[in-house]
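Readers of this paper often ask what the protein records in our data store actually look like. Nothing more is needed to write down the fold, since each code stands for a local backbone conformation. Below, we set out a record of this kind in full and without editing:
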Amino acid sequence: MTVSAVKIIQPGEIQGLPDDETPLLVLPLAVEVLKGRIARFEGLSKKGVLKDWLDFCAHVTKAQLEVIDQLTVTALDENIVVESLKHGLPPASIGGWKASEEWREAFKVFTESLAKQALSAPAKKVLEQFQSADAANLEQQAQDYLQAEEAHVKPEWAPLIGAILQTIWMKKVVQLAPYAASYKGQSTLCPVCGSHPVASVVRVGSHDGHRYLSCSLCSSEWYAARARCTNCETPKEVSMLGETKESLIQGECCDDCHGYLKIMYQSRDPMMDVIADDLASIQVDFGLSSEGYQRTGRNMLLMVAGETDQKDS
């Protein structure tokens, strides 16, 4: 693809925190998020070279939706939640997480649900290998993947591990709903769980014109000042690179840290979904990479295959 740069803001014009009632933290309604994601994957899978991959992701998301209400997750302490949000610490932190019974239950119901769906033959084979893998090894891979230690994870299992982890954390954040207003800050990582964003979204409706970062793990969204690098946060000019100036998805690129994060404009397609549209726009990543920028976001349903130290289980 061809990308072109547009400088959208000058230093000193960086937007700060809003001075009205705009929420700084928006927690997901998991069932509604997943329903919308399924519809988006199904729509996107009807065209283009990524059809089979996006169709598989639709099945994965259907399994997430089917099982999320069945899960039992670790209860969060109310005092810790309130104090953590006040002081900029993630109350449902990924730090120190171990794949205990919480993981084992989610693994069982998710894989059973996915196995009932009309998967392609290659996808069925990967799922069968995943289900029969050594449990201890798989739990270690889940812990590594959560911490972005991707060299220790089998690429073909990463979307399944990521989907299970997403389901666990989306269920966890339901507990935080009464306390979301306690969050008053800005962060480059998710203030709920500490994970990386997938992309940023300029919303419409009640949040019209405000930019939010969207968590790759728990799907929480938190306010992000425009236009500031979401990686290094240094006030500077910000470049937008994309296929056209009016494209749904642009790369918000920083010439200081040489990182980029996709930004999506909901007004250009109200049916967009951050996870689905990120996966469907891999050509944007290729274009930005060719311009010398490195991706700072993460999508739990995709790990680029490369060298790993994994041996077949």
About this structure: The beta strands are 4-7, 25-26, 197-202, 211-215, 221-223, 239-242, 249-253, 259-265, 294-295. The chain has nine helices and nine strands. Confidence is low (pLDDT under 50) at residues 5-14. The radius of gyration is 19 Å.
